[in-house]
Amino acid sequence: MKNRILGTALIAAIAFSTSVTAAGHDPVEARIALMKGVGAAAGAGGKILKGEIEFTPEAALEALTALNTAALALGDKFPAGTDGDSRSSAAPAIWTDADGFQVAVAKFVADSQAALDNPPQDVAAFGAAFGAVASNCRACHESYRIRKN
After folding, report:
1. Residue 60: which domain range?
2. Could you give the number of structural domains in the chain?
3. Rg for the chain (alpha carbons), in Å?
4. Element at 65 (helix H, strand E)
5. What is the pLDDT at residue 14?
6. For 5-9, 68-72, 89-93, 122-126, which range has the lowest pLDDT when averaged over its residues?
7. Is residue 149 part of a domain?
8. How far apart are CA 45 and CA 51, in angstroms?
9. CA distance linking residue 104 with residue 45, whole number of Å
10. Mean pLDDT of 89-102
């Protein structure tokens, strides 16, 4: 029960922080905060799959909602002129391959929305939905993120 309460509180905080970042005025700071929210939501999803946070349909929905909220907010966080900012790990390919990046963001939006449209009712269904959404993160990071040591 304790893990369920802690898990739900953690995921709720992630969803809140993810949605709040959309209000930032500095697009670099906003995207950094947004990506931290994505990382936290992905981490919470992983903990659900590992059994470290008790699976509940509500907890699954909160994690997926946080990821969808972030996906929807990504589109305007990479305006021209914000490339090369040392605060960010955004790769130049985001701007040089803007069409490819927009396709990747659109896939993240579509997959996270599909997961919300069919909310998982058990951990196996959550694993399938979460895996599809998380694969977007991995794919995008391979092409559009600079790895920092």
Report:
1. 2-144
2. 1
3. 15
4. helix 57-73
5. 58
6. 5-9
7. no
8. 10
9. 21
10. 96
SS3 145: strand
Q: Six-digit token pair at 55? A: 């699976």
Cα 2 off chain centre by: 25
Give the distance from CA 93 to its chain's centroid. Answer: 20
Q: Residue 131 domain-assigned?
A: yes
The residue ranking higher by pLDDT, 44 or 149, is 44
| Burial of 80 (C-beta count, 10 Å sphere; 0-12/13-18/19+) | exposed
CA distance 24 to 134: 25
Question: How far is CA 69 from each of CA 5, 25, 73, 82, 141, rounded to the nearest angstrom?
Answer: 22, 18, 6, 22, 18
Q: Supply the mean pLDDT for the chain.
A: 88
**pLDDT exceeds cutoff 60 at 84:** yes
Q: 51 exposed, middle or buried (CB, 10 Å; 0-12, 13-18, 19+)?
A: exposed
Residue 147 has what pLDDT?
87
The CATH number covering residue 57 comes to 1.20.120.10
- Round to the nearest angstrom and report the end-to-end CA distance of the chain: 38
Angstrom CA distances, 107 to 14, 28, 54, stand at: 21, 22, 28
